[in-house]
Amino acid sequence: MILAIDVQYTDDKADVAGVLFENWFSLDATQCYLTEVAQVAEYEPGSFYKRELPCILQLLQEHKLKPDIIVVDGYVYLDGVAKSGLGKHLYDSLGGKVEIIGVAKKPFVGISEKFAIYRGGSQKPLYVTSTGDVEQAKEAILSMAGKHRNPVLLKKVDQLCREAAKKRTQL
Questions:
Q1: β-strands 126-130, 116-117: how paired?
Q2: Measured distance CA(35)–CA(26) in Å, rounded
Q3: Residues 24-37 pLDDT 10s
Q4: Which Pfam family is one of this chain's hits (predicted)?
């Protein structure tokens, strides 16, 4: 199974969403998960993982999730090959047993165009990095359902965490 994860922050709280699906061609989620994190670390430039990693780990633990692959909104390697990003820190935290694929909407300084993919006729690329084979990861993201830049299930996980944060702040 594949799990896409995203996090939405509101002040010092976070809403974490997970969308579980069977394969790269899936149009619908098998299951959706939400976790509210009561206290998150301050944002630290260059060390974003310190804020997001505990949120992701809480979602995985709270729902006892053990996917084969995790897709994160961000980078595995900030430079594509060696400089650890959120995905690499997650990979290490899980004992190197789960492949992590990072899909980022914005280029990190120095990232090569070889990590860019274009979907749905968009002129804006997505940047794909991975703990596994990057070319296979790029093909996987390209094969995901959806006619637009962002695959349907990656958009869904983004919407879920945003909606959860909005509901919580309206209470």
A1: antiparallel
A2: 23
A3: 999 999 999 999 99
A4: Endonuclease_5
